[in-house]
């Protein structure tokens, strides 16, 4: 009934992200979260409950046999997730309604167990996301405060605004966005640019889940000639599907994406298509209810950032070295962090 999802031999367990504890039980609990009926269990019919009950009976007997014939010590180190514990309890009790409650509270795999994901046409969990250090940014405290306040409103179920972070390269827009995973109850899906055509399918899936998701689009192109532009425009301007209530869009774009259009501001009387392209770009940017700008670093802020990363004031010699380092890179938070590493 569930062949192919549960491990067939002990070595199969090594491919799983198991918590600390008896591995067979948690491996079978994960198999339940991946079951073919897991999504249907979010709104179960009597027939779905029957299928879940049969699966529980089959897996329960198989689990008892595995534990007796092939006992194993713990393979994982992390603590078990509440979804894994709940699924295992439902399996041992052979209680389909208890398992439905677990799935309705946490969602199916992989959403049940993880908070960060990458979407490249398929949703892939990021098992251990690498978060930037806290207070890693210098000079953008107002932007950070505004962004976090908006996201907190969203996570609390209050009205919030789709957000665009706009500014020069190296100013920390992506760092600030990824740091949102520190907020309690935050879940993030980073969308690869090549996967934008499949965004409708992702949104349909996320909209069925009990959690709230930040949909992160990094280095977004606002070029009206790009395919990504038209997919995002349809989403923001009101396609039939629209954005689910539990999804908040967060995009970053570099200054060059807007300068490409704004720097070629057409003159009166020029080809109407040139004006249309400019207006499309501006209209899409305005569809984000919250636009936070990240101006480029100047000399003073760059040196302040270097000192911040070192945790101490700079000597005159170090200041001179930092300025030489920036000659080929420009003043930015990224360059400041890179130079600080050379002094450690």
From TrEMBL:
<dbReference type="InterPro" id="IPR008533">
    <property type="entry name" value="DUF815"/>
</dbReference>
<dbReference type="InterPro" id="IPR027417">
    <property type="entry name" value="P-loop_NTPase"/>
</dbReference>
<protein>
    <submittedName>
        <fullName>Putative ATPase (AAA+ superfamily)</fullName>
    </submittedName>
</protein>
<feature type="domain" description="AAA+ ATPase">
    <location>
        <begin position="159"/>
        <end position="298"/>
    </location>
</feature>
<dbReference type="InterPro" id="IPR003593">
    <property type="entry name" value="AAA+_ATPase"/>
</dbReference>
<dbReference type="Pfam" id="PF05673">
    <property type="entry name" value="DUF815"/>
</dbReference>
